[in-house]
Amino acid sequence: MGAVQSYLDNAYMESFLASGSTESAFLRAVIDDDVPRLKDMVRTMDEEDRAKLADKEILDGCGLLEMASSLAQMKVCKYLVEELGFDVNLGGFRGGPTPLAGAAVSGEFIVARYLLNHGADPNKIDGTGFAALHAAAKNGNEAVVRLLLSRGARVDIAGVHGTPLHTAASYGNIGALKILLDHHADPNRVSEVTGTPISTALDSTKHGLSESVSLDCIKLLVKAGADVNSAHPDTPLVVATMNGLADSIKYLLEAGANPGIPDKQYGRLPIQIAASFGKRSLVEILFPFTSPIGAVANWSVQGIIAHEKSRCSIPKEPRNKTMDKIAELKSQGEKAVKRKDYLGASKLYSEALELDNCDATLYSNRSLCYVQIGKAQKALLDADVCIARRPNWVKGYYRKGAALMSLREHKKAVNVFLEGLKLDPANAEIEKVFWEALEAMKKDHAAEGSLKSTD
User: Fold this and answer.
1) CATH number of this structure's domain 319-447
2) Helix, strand, or coil here: 68?
3) Nearest Cα to 121, choosing from 100, 107, 143, 142?
4) pTM over 0.85, yes/no
5) CA–CA dist 19, 30 (Å, integer)
6) pLDDT digits (tens, 9 = 90+) for 170-228
7) What is the DSSP letter of 263?
């Protein structure tokens, strides 16, 4: 991601600042903390434009005060608030952060305190779908987390991806996690997008969080009373197995996780999931804790693996009939997609998967349908299975990136599309969505106040 980060911090910003626009001139003055220059620019504006200055978008959904707050330019902040009368709660309606969230994500304690002292609402949800406490938890800015909580920030305030506890767990920010739990954050609160905080921490290992850090988060959550058998949408043990996290599986079992609870999408126990992916080491960990499954004649580690492998094979005798049925369902699914009946198509693909649960194409097709009907989390699960079945097939990465885009996880989508491009550098389709994801990530980056690196 170094090249992408460089693109965002340097090439894009240099191009914008060199554009000669009014917005770029304002931004340069903010970056330089140059109040006299700002005053000169304001003097040249007519009364109508001056009245609209507080609402003026400078860059990617951010106004002057959001920019100044993110960059900790106190002179500019004071000028805008105390002399021009900017409302500290404006902003966040253009798709960018509020001034307080901008200061929080950048860890600017002094600016955050100044804004709070001048009436900033710590519980305002901004244009990114988060409150300031989410922003502080995301980057692990502990001093700002404490400040916000001391000024009335709700510890379990809900954002698009859950509470601040979900955010801290997702990014592995142990310090912020401890503070939130000390302030009685609910370790069992469920997010429709990411599930429980434990599941969030486990799933984040797919996107760069180390298992050791994820496990540290999980231990804190369990100590605070998190339910290791909460199935929202799946139990932590199922999620850990899906992600191949051996140490997490061991800890969860020790903490009382029940290996007899199946995943909701396919009805498989954790040991069956491990076996289906050929993860013998995980099967060995789960085996002593799992009660025998009646359908598995040879109840042993090798027997379970062989049984799951056989489930991916269509029986020889009725093979032609079964293949014909799968082909028919696929055809019907394709027709349903063409007429944009994505719900109907998803049901057809599900029926086909009951006959052959190892067909990566079916998972890919159903992932597409799930995105279209607003079930992005299910789309992401199908894309992950598709990649597991055919790791060198670009389509799986395309589907996964699309699901992440739908979840507004733009940075993660960039990484996934980049993986696909490495497999097929000439693929114009995935190159196109890669750049779209990069643009979206660039806007996220600006909105979070990460322009500090241009100083």
Assistant:
1) 1.25.40.10
2) helix
3) 100
4) no
5) 16
6) 999 999 999 999 999 999 999 877 889 999 999 888 778 899 999 999 999 999 999 99
7) P
